[in-house]
Design brief:
single chain; transmembrane helix; 5-stranded parallel sheet; alpha/beta; transmembrane; Rossmann fold; membrane; 2 domains; 17 helices
């Protein structure tokens, strides 16, 4: 046998063939990774600590610990997802106050969202965002408001001081609550830099997924209310059977077209979300939208109009029927009426560009024309305050151009965002910081009980709408509003409560 034969069978491992010499891509990538990691750690060790990055060193609380992360142990909170325009947001704010009062929870006061930054959809058509989706949409928009320096609390505009002082409701600013819940530095609640670290903003968004209930409820931590206007009408101690069918249901045509199987039931909010319920033990109760409106003999989502069995809630409902603007806004509107117009005047609120209103210009102008024709002839021009979304440069060919051109009969007044009165009012509101002056204010780094004044937002809030509504409430010759406009409804409510006659300093 040829012992040198290469065909001889053997169990020994043959020597591998020698491969061409070259570097492994994996080794090269590994070397580069550790090289950059070394220099990053070296750089970071010599970099002054950032308050934002410091706040991120502690990991997010795990679900079982989240109840202990809130600033006030034992306190229970309620938040919701506002949306659409300011008037709708104010309506939801009132409903949130009512729900917080009924359920004995501290209300988390939200910021004012950009006009239609978040939209609900249509309850009558059973086409709305799911509660968890609208909550996360609101959360992400709030993070953007903080990032861009445009965060402005609802309580900076709406005066809830009487509700707080009379103990009708407890409240906490959204920023204060959220930053504690997310275990971030409280100093960041009034950050005034537009170059916030992306990691900080990402952390806020990540924390929002828990608060929004994207993964469902968490025992003793978060109860996400996922009943919305498609399935539920909330009631309170109305004497009727709980979970009875509501009078408004999707009709057969809608069921077939949308392939829906929704059934609307009337549910007592106290029985379902109050003592003895699964939601009771949760530190945070998270609603979706709290918008409601009368519809076909029922309500879209909340049907609580009187509570004779609970006098405390009945009194609360009377208090929130009308919530005034803060004094700075009322004073500004009255000042313009008394010092600029300086005569009895008519207010015309003409919504001409937004949504359905742009298709009804003629009927909107007709109401104003008929009102003016009802006035008797006068040697002096009729003073008119024009509140409209139609820029003056676009008045050509409209009834407004006719009024402006007839200076012998009419004298027109208006306000713009750049006007000194509007800008000064915005500055005063920023200085007042009403939203951070009530409820739970934790200690800041300077040891004080209020947020530092150096934390003012870099951008002034848009307050023109609120001042204009106040001006219109002072119109002694009357008010002509756009039919169907919630702004017109708000002005009518202000006139009913005689805001212009209130004793506030001019």
């Amino acid at each position: 046998m040829n012992l040198l034969s290469f065909n001889r069978p053997t169990t020994a491992r043959p020597w591998p063939n020698k491969k061409p010499s070259h570097r492994s891509p994996f080794l090269v990538l590994s070397f580069l990774f550790f090289f950059f990691l070394f220099f990053f750690l070296l750089y970071y060790s010599f970099t002054p600590p950032s308050p934002f990055l410091d706040s991120l060193k502690t990991p997010f609380p795990s679900p079982p610990e989240c109840a202990s992360r809130v600033p006030f142990p034992g306190e229970k909170f309620l938040w919701y997802a506002p949306h659409s325009g300011f008037s709708n947001q104010l309506s939801e704010f009132k409903n949130a106050i009512l729900m917080a009062g009924i359920l004995n929870r501290t209300l988390i006061v939200p910021p004012i969202l950009d006009h239609h930054a978040v939209a609900l959809g249509s309850c009558p058509k059973f086409r709305v965002l799911d509660p968890d989706k609208i909550r996360i949409s609101v959360w992400e928009h709030v993070v953007e408001l903080i990032r861009s320096g445009r965060y402005f609390s609802m309580a900076d505009i709406i005066d809830i001081s009487s509700l707080i002082s009379s103990s009708f409701v407890r409240a906490i600013d959204f920023r204060v609550f959220a930053f504690h819940w997310c275990n971030l530095n409280i100093d960041a609640t009034c950050v005034n830099k537009l170059d916030m670290p992306s990691t900080f903003l990402h952390s806020l968004k990540q924390c929002g997924s828990l608060l929004s209930g994207l993964d469902g409820s968490v025992e003793k931590c978060l109860y996400a209310v996922n009943k919305d206007c498609r399935t539920t009408v909330w009631t309170y101690k109305n004497g009727n059977e709980d979970e009875a069918l509501d009078s408004f249901q999707p009709d057969d045509q809608l069921k077939k077209k949308k392939k829906t199987s929704y059934v609307r039931k009337r549910c007592d909010v106290y029985k379902n979300l109050g003592p003895g319920s699964e939601a009771e033990s949760a530190t945070l109760l998270a609603f979706g939208s709290l918008f409601t409106a009368p519809y076909k003999g029922s309500e879209l989502y909340i049907d609580i109009h009187e509570t004779p069995r609970d006098q405390r809630i009945q009194n609360l409902m009377q208090k929130i029927e009308f919530l005034p603007f803060v004094p700075e806004i009322i004073n500004a509107g009255k000042k313009f009426a008394h010092e600029t117009i300086r005569a009895p005047f008519l207010c015309a609120q003409l919504r001409l560009l937004d949504g359905q209103f742009k298709n009804h210009r003629k009927s909107t102008f007709l109401g104003l024309k008929q009102k003016l024709e009802s006035f008797h002839q006068s040697p002096h021009p009729i003073h008119i305050y024009i509140m409209t979304d139609l820029p003056e440069s676009n008045w050509t060919g409209s009834y407004l151009e006719d009024l402006a051109g007839d200076s012998n009969r009419f004298k027109l007044f208006s306000l713009k965002e750049k006007d000194e009165l509007v800008r000064e009012t915005a500055k005063r509101l920023v200085d007042a910081s009403h939203g951070l002056s009530f409820g739970f204010i934790p200690k800041t780094r300077d040891g004080g009980g209020k947020i530092n004044k150096y934390c003012h937002p870099p951008m002034l809030p848009d307050v023109l709408l609120y001042i204009e509504e106040t001006v219109c409430s002072c119109a002694s010759l009357g008010f002509v509003g756009t039919p169907g406009s919630t702004i017109a409804e708000s002005i009518e409510l202000m006139r009913k409560h005689e805001v212009c006659s209130s004793q506030t300093e001019l």
